[in-house]
Every structure is written in C-alpha cells, then in structure tokens.
UniProtKB/TrEMBL annotation:
Alphabetical list of Pfam families matching this protein: DUF4728
PANTHER family in UniProt: GEO08273P1-RELATED (PTHR34609)
Keywords of the record: Membrane, Transmembrane, Transmembrane helix
Organism of origin: Anopheles culicifacies
Protein name: MARVEL domain-containing protein
Segments passing through the bilayer: 20-39, 59-78, 90-110, 122-147
Keyword Ubl conjugation: no
Length: 165
C-alpha cells in the first residue's frame, strides 16, 4: 500500500482542495494559453520538428491544451466523486509534462545563452525552474490525494486503518 508524499496542500489546505485548485488552475492557464496562441504574434518553435509551418505548430499546441483541459476536468470529477481511476490520466500526464517542462526550460535557456542573450537566458532559467518546482509540488499534491483515494478504495472506504507498528 503506497503512502501519500504529502498530507496537505501548502500546509493549510486539504489534499482534496489542493487537487481541485490544481485542476482549475490547469484549465485556466490552458484557456489563457489558447487565447494567447491565436492572438499574440509569437513565432512558436518545436525542438524536433522545426520545419513545420507556424499555423500547424499553433494547432498542435492548441490541441494539447484542449486535451489538458479535458484531462483536468476528468481529474476534478475524480476528486469530487472520490474515484482514483478518473484521476489516473492526469497523474500520468502530469509527470510527463513536468519532465517536458524541465527539458523545455533548460533547452530555451541554453539557446538564449548561445545566442548571446545572457539576461534572457538567466531570466528564462530562474523563472522556468521556479515554474517547474511549483508544477512538481502541485503534481505531488494531486498524486498524494490519488494515493489516498486508491488506498481507501482498496481497503473499503469505511473500514478501520490497517494496523502499523
């Protein structure tokens, strides 16, 4: 039986509240990002397929964000219904996104440094790594609630705590 990594969110909120807030934050940031993708004039690039046209890259990013919204809604529904199976896609995707975010932050900072933009690279690195830390913490909160619900469902929600020495 796995143990939660943390017992509360920010030391004053429940894991349930933190999980709901994380899902809502993911939805809000995804909606804002979709709006920005199609309204702000930015050249989007991909690390591996830099030959793709800008419109295709924007559509790929937007589809990823729509999937994030759907998976976050599913996770929130899992929290509300106390069903850890609904939370599983978010937990798995969240871990992959954390790794992707870290790679993206490091890659972009290195590109800035190579191009001679030391201040831009430094800011990208500091703000990016801070974002990674916050994201990983929120993932840990959701994962901890996921484990709590899984443990409850495995032993029966209303049974006693297992005996531990």
């Amino acid at each position: 039986m796995a143990q939660p990594l943390v017992n509360s969110c920010c030391r004053c909120y429940s894991l349930r509240s933190g999980s709901i807030a994380t899902g809502l934050l993911g939805i809000l940031l995804s909606i804002i990002s979709i709006i920005l993708i199609f309204t702000v004039r930015i050249d989007f690039k991909t690390i591996l397929m830099d030959w793709l046209p800008q419109n295709v890259v924007k559509i790929i990013y937007a589809l990823n964000l729509v999937m994030t919204i759907l998976i976050s809604l599913l996770m929130i529904m899992g929290v509300m219904k106390k069903n850890h199976f609904f939370m599983m896609p978010w937990v798995v995707l969240g871990l992959m996104l954390a790794i992707g975010l870290l790679i993206s932050v490091i890659y972009n900072a290195v590109v800035y440094f190579i191009d001679g933009y030391v201040l831009g690279g430094s800011l990208w690195l500091v703000i990016g790594l801070l974002s990674v830390v916050i994201y990983v913490y929120l993932w840990i909160v959701v994962y901890s609630y996921f484990v709590t619900l899984k443990n409850e469902n495995d032993r029966g929600r209303y049974s006693k705590q297992p005996y531990r020495r």
